[in-house]
Amino acid sequence: MGFLSFIGLIVVLKFLVYFVLFFTSDTDLELWFYDKFKRNFDSFKDKVVWITGASSGIGEHIALNLSKHGAKLILSARSKDKLYQVKNRCIELSEGKLTANDILVLPMDVTNISKHNSLFDNVISHFGKLDILVNNAGRSQRAMWEDIELGVDQELFDLNVFPVINLSRIAVKYFNQVGRGQLVATSSIAGIIPAPFSATYDATKHALHGYFGALRLEKLHSNIHVTLLCPGPVFSNFLKESFTGRPGEKYGLTHSPTDNRMSTERCAHLSCVAIANKLKESWMAKFPFILIVYFTIYYPVIAYKFYELYGYKTINKLRDNQ
Asked: Does the annotation count 18 as an active-site position?
């Protein structure tokens, strides 16, 4: 075998290895590439990042990740005590990169839209700028489609959509003035392909893709970037806090430690890779969810044959382990 043939064989084998790794990976192709070869975390140094829903779950762990790389943070959620706990952990993990003044605890109820402008002014007053807004607050849902009361539809849109859009519009007007900025929103795999027993939640996440997709097109030739994070099932209290079909009711189911779910730490890490590289849309979920998304988008006929063959119970078992 000649030298060039040997090199060619090595290249082919390497490609096959990457191909197999990708199709069993927990990310889409673009995010997989950046996570392997170009994380770009140094870009976070001295950036000012505002995270809503920062007291727990994905938002908390995004904050913890960013603190390691020197990002200055605004932490928002309803629980002031939990936010201070997150702040203290961020300072500890920063290993001297951040002081107490570099992390602003800003308690807020995102549904109180009338307060958004004043809260935004507080951020600019404290840091003098805002570089990245991460819209992470929200809740999921489990209910039969026909059993969902209209009040639940209204409550979920009032939490998952309208506060995100209102706060983002305030941020975009500011970004227009300073000539740069990045909007990030935590969507879901359910914002790409609908999931059963989550009709209203699916609709709220599809709505985010519509709103931010239009914004991304309008800002194509600007220095304003839009990143949509689309996680699948993740270990958190998300399911326990989910809406049902009746207003004011919580689903209450907790996760089993044997669930096939992505860890919150892994999800936050991948989210930070997507944010650092200003990726437009990033999918993250354990096998086989990413493969299912690709098939549903690019081969919808095959995907629906799969759904017809195995039914919603298989999909629900993959998602909720029930």
From this structure: no
